[in-house]
């Protein structure tokens, strides 16, 4: 199933139609997405039996972030082999973890202010936790995943690297620096959930073009390794890393500019459009 946030209301999506969850369930479930994630097993059982094509037509521009208030937002650095190669760095033995503060989350068609001329793009597969857990085994990890969505890990590189050690969390948490969307897609919707085409463009320019099969640590491994230390909560986001092509490691460097529109796409999920202002 495909779940979205349509003008602040939780909906099931089928193509260009949206089924309002509160109305379709006769009030069994409310309009807020966060309680649905906290009651994921019961909600998923109900939603799986619904026909979203009976919903109303909607305007995709009205979609907000499918998880508007995540309790925790994790970022994973250097998690694609081709990105490590372009950066001239060895593959990590353990996930390189940082946080993106929840106030940076915005929707799939947002305008995002650029705080400087050193802002970079990183298209990412974002994992959304549905069932909380601590010390989750790799073989059980997907049972704790509500779904997947598209994300951009926008980064202000001057702040990120202004000191030693780098300030990853601060440089990646300006308002709007964590756009996600357009929908949350449950894992059963994918033919191969570990091999999805991923990329982003600016106009006719291809910025990144990769596959999630190139991850150093898979989704299941990330869930297991994060939960080995942290209790994962319903609605938590995991920005799982980015493929090659980011601007900071190019020569010459390629940063974002006002007026650009970054289109981010992941196979089986959809497209997100971020306007930089």
Automatic annotation (TrEMBL):
A Pfam family matched in the record: FAA_hydrolase
Domain Fumarylacetoacetase-like C-terminal: 73-276
UniProt-recorded Gene Ontology molecular function terms: hydrolase activity
Keywords attached to this entry: Hydrolase, Metal-binding
Annotated PANTHER family: FUMARYLACETOACETATE HYDROLASE DOMAIN-CONTAINING PROTEIN 2A, FUMARYLACETOACETATE HYDROLASE DOMAIN-CONTAINING PROTEIN 2A-RELATED
Family in the record: Belongs to the FAH family.
Protein name as catalogued: Fumarylacetoacetate hydrolase family protein
Source organism per UniProt: Ornithinimicrobium faecis
